[in-house]
């Protein structure tokens, strides 16, 4: 949740800065250098806004993966420890029994 809040705050901060730069009135007698610096500031803020959006998309992608697949577990960790081995042995025995019946 903290990561989500930081990402949204960065996104809003960059958007506010970009809107502020865009709405800033042009000064009388502004030179090309001032206009270039202003344009560069807007470009930097726009790039930062895109990066903040990408970070938010990455977070949503990670949340979806965790929701679908769950957190990764270590070896022999989680519910039913050792149960998979027992189940696979039972399945193997059942398959062998069916094959013997078919072969007879």
What order do the helices and strands come in, and which of them pair?
Blueprint: H1 2-23, H2 32-69, H3 83-103
Helix pairs in contact: 1-2
Multimeric state: single chain
Structural class: mainly alpha
Number of DSSP E strands: 0
The whole-angstrom Rg is 30 Å
Bulk shape: rod-shaped
Helix percentage: over 70%
Average pLDDT number: 83
Encode the helix/strand succession as letters: HHH
The first-to-last residue Cα distance is 62 Å
Low-confidence stretches: none
**Biggest sheet descriptor:** none
Number of helices: 3
Strand content: under 5%
Describe the fold and architecture.
The termini are far apart. It is rod-shaped, with a radius of gyration of 30 Å. Helices cover 78% and strands 0% of the residues. It has 104 residues and is mainly α.
Offer a quick outline of the entry:
This protein is an all-alpha fold and 104 residues long. The protein is built from 3 helices and no strands.
Please supply descriptive tags for the structure shown above.
104 residues; 3 helices
């Amino acid at each position: 949740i903290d990561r989500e809040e930081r990402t949204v705050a960065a996104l809003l901060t960059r958007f506010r800065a970009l809107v502020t730069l865009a709405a800033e009135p042009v000064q009388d007698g502004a030179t090309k250098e001032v206009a270039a610096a202003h344009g560069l500031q807007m470009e930097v803020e726009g790039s930062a806004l895109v990066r903040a959006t990408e970070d938010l998309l990455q977070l949503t992608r990670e949340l979806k993966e965790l929701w679908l697949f769950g957190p990764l577990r270590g070896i022999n960790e989680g519910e039913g420890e050792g149960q998979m081995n027992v189940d696979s042995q039972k399945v193997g025995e059942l398959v062998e029994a069916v094959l013997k019946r078919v072969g007879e």
